Amino acid sequence: MSAWQAIISGAIQGLTEFLPISSSGHLVVSHHLFGLTTPQLVFDIYLHCATLIPIFVVFRKDIAAALRNVDGLGVLVVIATCVTFLAALPCKHFFIEAFHNPRLVGCMLGITGVLLLTTAVFQNRKRAGNASSKKIGVPQAIIIGLVQACAIMPGISRSGATIATALLLGSCPTEAVRFSFLLSIPAVIAAVAWSLKGAGDGGIHPTAPYIFGFIAALVTGWIALQIVIMSVERRKLHFFGIYCIILSAVIVVSV
């Protein structure tokens, strides 16, 4: 991988890890365009670690609250994470094969787009009816955990699917964003552990392209996280759905 490919891939990872448009889906397509046919496991480790940093900084107070299990938040994160693991484990081979199918990724992006668009309709109806927001409890955590398992499929946005599901279940925007990104921490750590296992004995020694990719993912990830928080709070999440549907159509037709 060249330096410029690493920078572009890092920027794509940083932006799409937080924006609800599927980081895995965009990386599959970009690697396909770059002609990278073998998994970039060590590079993925650097990118995942880079995108963890903005989460730890922005949600540091919420992370502390979860660790203290304030209002049961820590237990809810653990429940949703366990549900994700149990639901995804039997399907791991199917998910792995999906990473080699750009057209399938395009179809999944279309599903992400439709899900994001539904949040606009639901939230407008909720606002018109002046319905009160519900706190995330055990039933909601289980459903969100199942949705996160589905989001392992490239093209299904993890952040988009979990935030949209929380909103559709009646959560307020602030709580939906908070729970989604707290839930992302164990998911990203698991992805890093999986990549480390796949990397074998080769180690994860830094190279110039990997460092460039790390920096690009860190900077763009920080920007993207601020954008998605603002978008959810202003009820503009559905605009990303339009992008996903357009990109889905382009990929399905052209790949």
What percent strand? Answer: under 5%
Q: What is the alpha-carbon Rg in Å?
A: 18 Å
Total domain count: 1
Give the proportion of residues in helices.
over 70%
Give the helices and strands, then pairings.
Elements: H1 3-18, H2 23-34, H3 41-58, H4 60-67, H5 73-88, H6 92-98, H7 102-128, H8 138-150, H9 158-168, H10 173-199, H11 208-233, H12 238-254
Helix pairs in contact: 1-2, 1-3, 1-11, 2-7, 3-10, 3-11, 5-8, 5-10, 7-9, 7-12, 8-9, 9-10
Entry summary:
The protein contains 12 helices and no strands. It is mainly alpha-helical and 255 residues long. The two termini are 22 Å apart.
What does this structure look like?
The protein has one domain. Helices cover 78% and strands 0% of the residues. It has helices at 3-18, 23-34, 41-58, 60-67, 73-88, 92-98, 102-128, 138-150, 158-168, 173-199, 208-233, 238-254.
Tags for this entry?
255 residues, mainly alpha, globular
